[in-house]
Amino acid sequence: MEVGFLGLGIMGKAMAVNLLRNGFKVTVWNRTLSRCEELVEQGASMGSTPAEVVKKCKYIIAMLSDPPAALSVVFGKDGVLEQMCTGKGYIDMSTVDTVTSTKISEAIIEKGGRFLEAPVSGSKKPAEDGQLIILAAGDKSLYDEVMPSFDVMGKKAFFLGEVGNGAKMKLVVNMIMGSMITAFSEGLALADKSGLSQTTLLDVLELGAIANPMFKLKGPAMIQEKFPTAFPLKHQQKDMRLALALGDEVEVSMPVAAAANEAFKKGISLGLSDQDFSAVYQVVKESSAASKV
Ligand SMILES: NC(=O)c1ccc[n+]([C@@H]2O[C@H](COP(=O)([O-])OP(=O)(O)OC[C@H]3O[C@@H](n4cnc5c(N)ncnc54)[C@H](OP(=O)(O)O)[C@@H]3O)[C@@H](O)[C@H]2O)c1
User: Fold this and answer.
1) Ligand 1 center to residue 225 CA distance, Å?
2) Does domain 168-292 bear CATH number 1.25.40.10?
């Protein structure tokens, strides 16, 4: 199968590498074109614009940072729409909101193409290991056709029905995750300031009912104040913002998520945008230090 791949950030690069390793022919494009070189060394072809990739490939996957990026790659100059036509399928795996996804879907379909949104749950390591959870919605025939690529990139794919359902499911999941990591950070800070060992807290959590892979993975680095980036904090804040907007739309009150969103916003203002989202621990620590003054 020959696929185009647009967006070689943390996730896109790992996913495209997996496709290459599993025998797919991959043509890549990235806004910062130099980031394509590593993939070309591993056997990928390169397109100089999104339109060029679409012209060449029947199936095109996108993994872009946020709604403005997803929209500009489709609607912008030399964008996806310029070469979209009957017979082609566009699969957007970026985390965006339903409005963005629907707008892209309508434009692709108007050009005769088919559209699938397929955001993923799972971070850098699951992307590298082909262990993502894929939350797809849109054109079922396209879903079935690109299943071999989902089998390579993920451990499980869900088909959730009409466009928007994948985006919503992803936002719900990341809203929970953002609230959890913020509560976890507060717990670590509270333990520390109360004179408790944070390592012992991690051991206690690990044995009980709220043990989870995220605490286990992130906790040891967080207590050393190390935040190697797997999921950038700026993207977690984007997901909280989009999830809160979804809550507005359907009238669900989410005070916990709203408070966590403020912590991530504060993280951005402290210059933590490109650190891992677990750096929200720095925000919590900073706030407790400030409140002592
Ligand atoms: N990292 C994770 O753990 C994770 C997990 C699940 C889902 N996601 C979601 O997956 C998506 C990608 O995440 P990531 O971690 O790979 O992000 P990333 O490392 O920040 O990469 C973002 C990608 O988007 C491109 N981009 C940004 N603005 C653009 C624009 N205006 N036009 C064209 N391209 C643009 C970047 O190109 P440049 O290289 O030129 O900047 C890069 O290829 C996001 O929606 C994120 O929320 C991430």
Assistant:
1) 24
2) no
